[in-house]
Amino acid sequence: MASYLATGCSRGLELALVARLATLPKTEVGTILATARQDHSPQLTEIASTSSGRLQIVKLHVTDESSVKEAVAVVERQLQVKGLDYLVNNAGVSDWSPTGLEGMDNLNEMFNINATGTHLVSRLPATSVQRRQESNNQHVRTAGGN
Ligand SMILES: NC(=O)c1ccc[n+]([C@@H]2O[C@H](COP(=O)([O-])OP(=O)(O)OC[C@H]3O[C@@H](n4cnc5c(N)ncnc54)[C@H](OP(=O)(O)O)[C@@H]3O)[C@@H](O)[C@H]2O)c1
């Protein structure tokens, strides 16, 4: 049974993904570590409370290095030697400027969340897709940050 760490699960695509994962047989999906930067998602809380402990919410702000380290420590405790099978780097933002390039003033902020945040989460040993070379460890990134 595979373990998952998914970022940005408070709403949107990733909330839908972890909701689906939590319905799959335990022989296929084991621990689901669903991260959110705030405790403000009633839907995620509801999924966790009905998952018999399979889905756990981990607080994570992907641009805050100390938050990433704290979350990774939780991941290490939860998975121990078994390691992580799937990392889904979904937390991200997309935006557009109605006035084109001239009005675009948040490029650094977007880059920080979509690219640097993904890097911070991916590079630590507990989440590294290279750590378990003998396994089918997979890294998925949503399109916004690439
Ligand atoms: N929806 C689409 O059609 C589509 C298409 C292509 C690519 N994408 C990309 O896929 C990703 C998810 O899309 P979505 O539609 O599900 O977006 P969404 O509904 O806006 O959800 C974004 C998620 O990212 C989280 N997040 C944002 N900044 C964060 C940060 N600094 N630290 C931790 N979490 C953070 C949000 O948390 P909060 O609730 O705390 O804000 C939320 O959980 C985005 O990167 C988007 O660009 C989406």
From TrEMBL:
One of its GO terms (cellular component) is cytoplasm. InterPro entries: Fungal_SecMetab_SDRs, NAD(P)-bd_dom_sf, SDR_fam. It comes from the Eukaryota. It holds the Pfam family adh_short. GO terms for molecular function: oxidoreductase activity. Belongs to the short-chain dehydrogenases/reductases (SDR) family. PANTHER family: CHAIN OXIDOREDUCTASE (CSGA), PUTATIVE (AFU_ORTHOLOGUE AFUA_4G00910)-RELATED, SHORT-CHAIN DEHYDROGENASE/REDUCTASE. This is Ketoreductase (KR) domain-containing protein. It comes from Penicillium coprophilum.
